[in-house]
């Protein structure tokens, strides 16, 4: 049996926000009270029952949550466009840590454990060609920690591709410091080998009138847990968080987005879509949005859709929208997890299209709106090919 | 010459627990060049007949046979039936988000014709067919049926009919929900398809209205899961006059009141 769960809603239909937790569910503390610290010892070792860990299979974390020591390093290669500065800096560099503070023990462990960081600076007032940062895992059985910071200076316009591949266990923090009026587009691809474990926190800090487009594509790895957090420091900030994930048998792919609206007149839009196939394929999407009292004029929407292609797969989807001011432009969320739509399949087959091809059309169509927004053609083509490859296994 | 032979067809639909017989022995033969109108009150099983012939998984054939040019249709998958030359214009066409109409039409034509149509000819062919049905060219870039009005969906069903050129077309209440202008355009599309004389048409309808535009050679009255009376055009006139009361015992008009 396929199992789909949602804390607030089951089934195929979209729903609108009711403004609170349903009866019978545990009372979740306000996201505003969420603990953060750069000190790993300030966090207790999680046992797995904690709210932020309850979906994660702790045994497969290779002790990242329990002080695992680094045994190796990842390889970071930057193919920088003209004008882009790339530096490798030591721990003490004062620019590091400005975009956000670790919000869980593994992020704090990564902060405590990295030895050198990569800083990529996108020059002000300039539009540059895409820059690619390739992170290759340290190898099977190895544990590594890392730190990366992408700085888009004032009015910079740039696309950065983060490409994760290879084997091993890796925990890191990635910072996006988006200057006033800058336009930063990020595509983060998790295309790890089957053994890989990757726990990553992305911290984005948006300046006034900054635009941040963040697309996460998670395909490979035994366990991937990605926590993108967006904060605003000035009005007019605009964040779009897109995600696409495809879990096969045994994979655990978890995405936990948090948009913290503490400044007025900012916008956010979160759209994550996932497909699952195979025994024990498990995906988790937690979408937290907090509109603080000061964040008047906020406009936010978040959506998660999951397509369960076979029995034995499980999708968890939990949108949390907290609103502390009534003076907003709009706020909403929607979440739905559904089986493959047999009526769509019938319709396509009734036009002569063979079943396999019909399934692919439907899944490709499901992901279409996300893929369409990937600004880099080479990346889009590669991902389309990767999704095709995933689909080869559908129904097999 | 194409022939669809339906013999003593019994079909059940299975809900949660119970299985309910809907078609109770349908006999019907449709030859190329013929148009058969199947008329009946709501709930008589007309749509079930169309879906069962097309192979919808919800319906189970419990006995009887369906042959297309002697080939056993019931042994074929849904897509094999379509490639063998069956086409069902659906009453409620399905939306397929993210799949463009252009991509869908070309994929379907490639499957049915057995090879990808020459791109230049194809573009021209689709453009012409869309123009004939008063379909705006921008629909090509829209997702299949997504956000289409009822009339737009029906036009696109007939667009597919014209492009896929089946041997036997089943039109399931294609007239429902159409205003007069749309009905005329859609009927013209069906008549154009019939022009070749090489295809047979099963025209399922509740009302006689569409028969003013599409001439039936045979009219069959469908009630309680089977054909209860067959005749020519005059039978439709009788239904227009008297409704289905004779067959069902209920007052139900066959003309739009």
Task: Please tag this protein with its features.
heterodimer, A: mainly beta, 10-stranded mixed beta sheet, 9-stranded mixed beta sheet, B: alpha/beta, 6-stranded mixed beta sheet, 8 helices, 30% strand, globular, FeS-cluster_ATPase_SufC (chain B), ATP-binding (chain B)
General description of the model:
- The complex is a heterodimer of chains A (396) and B (257).
- Chain A is mainly β and 396 residues long.
- Chain A has one domain (3-8, 29-341).
- Chain A has helices at residues 105-113, 342-349, 355-372, 377-392, and strands spanning 3-6, 75-79, 85-90, 116-122, 131-136, 143-152, 157-165, 169-178, 183-191, 197-206, 211-220, 223-232, 238-247, 252-261, 267-276, 282-291, 299-308, 314-323, 330-339.
- In chain A, the strands form two sheets. A ten-stranded mixed sheet of chain A has the order 1-18-16-14-12-10-8-6-4-3, with helices on one face.
- In chain A, α2 packs across α3 and α3 (355-372) packs antiparallel against α4 (377-392).
- The model of chain A is unreliable at 1-26 (pLDDT under 50).
- Chain B starts with a strand and ends in a 9-residue tail after the last helix.
- Chain B is globular and about 55 Å long.
- In chain B, β1 (3-14) and β2 form a beta hairpin.
- In chain B, 34% of the residues lie in helices and 30% in strands.
- The A-B interface holds A 341-344, 346-355, 357-358, 361-362, 364-369 and B 54-57, 77-79, 81-83, 87-88, 90, 93-99, 103-104, 107-108, 111-112, 143-144, 160, 164.
Q: What is the share of helical residues of chain A?
A: 10-25%
How many individual β-strands of chain A?
19
Largest interface: A-B, 24 and 30 residues
Shape of chain B: globular
How far is it from the N-terminal to the C-terminal residue of chain A, by CA? 17 Å
Strand order of the largest sheet of chain B: 6-9-10-3-11-12
**Share in helix of chain B:** 25-40%
H/I helix tally of chain A: 4
